[in-house]
From TrEMBL, chain A:
A GO molecular-function descriptor: ATP binding
Descriptive protein name: ABC transporter ATP-binding protein
UniProt-listed InterPro entries: AAA+_ATPase, ABC_transporter-like_ATP-bd, ABC_transporter-like_CS, ABC_transporter_ATP-bind, P-loop_NTPase
SUPFAM superfamilies named in the record: P-loop containing nucleoside triphosphate hydrolases
Pfam family, one: ABC_tran
Keyword tags: ATP-binding, Nucleotide-binding, Transport
Residues covered by the ABC transporter domain: 6-238
Automatic annotation (TrEMBL), chain B:
CDD domains registered for this protein in UniProt: TM_PBP2
Protein name (record): ABC transporter permease
InterPro entries (alphabetical): MetI-like, MetI-like_sf
Record-annotated membrane-spanning stretches: 38-60, 99-118, 130-152, 158-177, 210-232, 252-273
SUPFAM superfamilies per the UniProt record, alphabetical: MetI-like
Record's keyword terms, sorted: Cell membrane, Membrane, Transmembrane, Transmembrane helix, Transport
Species of the source: Amycolatopsis ultiminotia
């Protein structure tokens, strides 16, 4: 069997919390992702899901344990990683075309070549005709499409997504989920998709990893044997989906309750 | 509630305003508003200059306070027959040259130092007290020293302009470089940007709006620096002209000089505003911005 593409072994991340103590965001977390696999990571709000992604991306080093990508320890940003952030990370001073072309440009492609590649991806995410627009002239959903194209144009083998659609309204979100599945299906990329929306996780993923409340570690892992290609809106109404949902929610609910109690005691 | 057909059929619903009416009305209102604003501005100018002129003729001594007609007379004299020290255009050119060269050097140095310190928290922590002290210093007084060091010519004025412009630009570039969105930098790094590329394509554009807004103030400072430098010691320029007018109790000459500098500053402001609008095309139009454009 091929070795996993991404592997976290007992990964731990600690931060100074600003008032002299140490905050442990992730503790002893082990999981693995195979090439081409779509893994959703769910957990209560603020549990350390995003930190997990920054460990894999190499933006932050682990405090303990190992993070392996392509079988080697992550020292800096590994090759072939794309990262979609929760908040808008498109450059407001660049047009849609220049934004999408910036990845290839940073990597040394010529201007014409980068633009041709960008134009192709802009069309694929359904933004043809908007090449010359600036981000502030676009809607939230369209900006997400730009970010998606900006990430995918570098042809990543690993796609890290940090609640990318959480700021969108329900209809736009469903639309973007379908778009993501469509674009991902041909790419062969492995995805780690962080979300606190269980619906989203089940609809998109092959495997759902449930994290505990802070400090995060893996509580349960569920396989999602739903058929592809999927239509997110229709999928939600099926028996299979409801059964999976209630099953995983059983596991997640305990953590959400704990997180709530913690939040309540912090407030009090 | 059921959807009943309305008693009045849609054909007979009266149209009180067509789309054209709405547009025409909005246009009419906007036109009237603009006209009123300009009329009021004109009224303020007339009232101010008129009362000054009247006071100068009947009440205060125009020898000390001058009056608009005398200033106008001095201006026409300067522009038709030249000043005592050569053509007025030459004097303006000298001052603008000093201000411009000092402005360019000062702005570039300010941006470079600001961005470097803004990106390096260590360096900025070390240098913070020195920068604060240098900023608190009455830098305009340095003009006197610069005349001693660099003589009466161009270089002493450029030095004065430089110290004024540098700090104005530096602080804005510093803040701009420090406030860059962390997310944008991370995103660029993931997309494969090197340190230099991050600086050029993320930090600099991000700081641009800060830097550009400082340039408005900085060019005003540049003109002040040039004029004060000339006032301290020079052989030509608007400051020299004003200083000379003061020496001969020519109050109208002082005012006339001020007026010319003012016009130059407004012209430069307009140029910088144009550059700013071009460079910040990507930004959503803000109503405050539109308001300023009017002024």
């Amino acid at each position: 069997m091929a070795p996993p593409l991404i592997e976290l072994v007992g990964a731990t991340k600690r931060f100074p919390n600003g008032s002299g103590a140490v905050h442990t965001a992730v503790r002893d977390l082990s999981m693995s992702v195979d090439p081409g696999q779509f893994v959703a990571v769910v957990g209560p709000t603020g549990c350390g899901k995003s930190t997990t992604l920054s460990l894999v991306s190499g933006l932050q080093p682990a405090s303990a344990g190992r993070v392996l990508v392509h079988g080697t320890d992550v020292q800096s940003i590994p090759d072939g990683v794309g990262y979609m952030f929760q908040t808008d990370a498109v450059m407001p001073w660049r047009s849609v075309l220049e934004n999408v072309a910036s990845g290839p440009r940073f990597r040394g492609a010529g201007k014409a070549q980068a633009r041709a590649k960008a134009a192709d991806w802009i069309e694929r995410v359904g933004l043809a005709g908007f090449e010359k627009y600036y981000p502030h002239q676009l809607s939230g959903g369209m900006r997400k499409r730009v970010a998606l194209a900006q990430t995918l144009v570098t042809d990543p083998k690993i796609l890290l997504m940090d609640e990318p659609f959480s700021a969108l309204d329900v209809q736009t979100r469903a639309l973007m989920q379908d778009e993501l599945l469509r674009l991902w299906s041909g790419s062969g990329a492995a995805v780690i998709f962080v979300t606190h929306d269980l619906d989203e996780a089940i609809a998109l993923a092959d495997k759902v990893v449930v994290l505990t409340t802070s400090p995060a570690t893996v509580k349960d892992v569920f396989d999602i044997p739903l058929q592809r290609p999927r239509k997110v809106e229709e999928l939600r109404l099926t028996e299979e989906f409801r059964a999976l949902y209630s099953n995983i929610w059983e596991s997640l609910r305990g953590e959400v309750d704990k997180a709530r109690q913690k939040g309540a005691s912090n407030v009090a | 509630m059921s959807l009943e057909t309305p008693a009045v059929s849609s054909a007979s619903v009266p149209v009180l305003e067509t789309e054209q009416d709405v547009l025409a009305k909005a246009k009419r209102n906007a036109g009237r508003h603009k006209r009123n604003v300009w009329l009021l501005r004109l009224a303020i100018v007339v009232a101010w200059l008129g009362s000054w002129e009247l006071a100068g003729r009947y009440w205060i001594d125009p020898f000390f306070y001058s009056m608009p007609s005398k200033i106008w007379q001095r201006l026409t004299e300067w522009f038709t027959g030249g000043t005592d020290f050569g053509s007025i255009w030459y004097q303006i050119l000298v001052t603008v040259e000093e201000a411009f060269i000092g402005f360019v050097i000062g702005a570039i140095a300010g941006v470079i130092c600001g961005v470097v310190l803004g990106r390096s928290s260590y360096l900025s922590e070390v240098l913070a007290p020195f920068i604060k002290a240098a900023n608190a210093m009455p830098r305009i007084v340095l003009a006197a020293l610069f005349v001693i060091w660099f003589g009466l010519g161009l270089s002493s004025k450029i030095a004065t302009v430089f110290v004024l412009v540098f700090f104005a630009v530096f602080f804005n570039a510093f803040t701009g470089a420090r406030e860059v969105d962390r997310n944008l930098i991370d995103n660029a790094r993931i997309l494969g940007a090197t340190r230099w590329q991050v600086l050029r394509s993320i930090v600099l554009p991000s700081a641009t709006s800060w830097i550009l807004s400082s340039l408005h103030v900085a060019f005003g400072f540049a003109l002040i620096g040039a004029v004060v430098g000339e006032y301290t010691g020079a052989k030509a320029g608007m400051g020299f002209l004003i200083s000379n007018a003061q020496g001969t109790f020519d109050t109208a000459g002082v005012y006339a000089g001020m007026l010319i500098i003012m016009v130059v500053a407004l012209f430069a402001e307009w140029l910088i505003g144009g550059a700013e609008r071009r460079l910040l095309r990507w930004r959503p139009q803000m109503s405050a911005d539109d308001g300023r454009r009017d002024i």
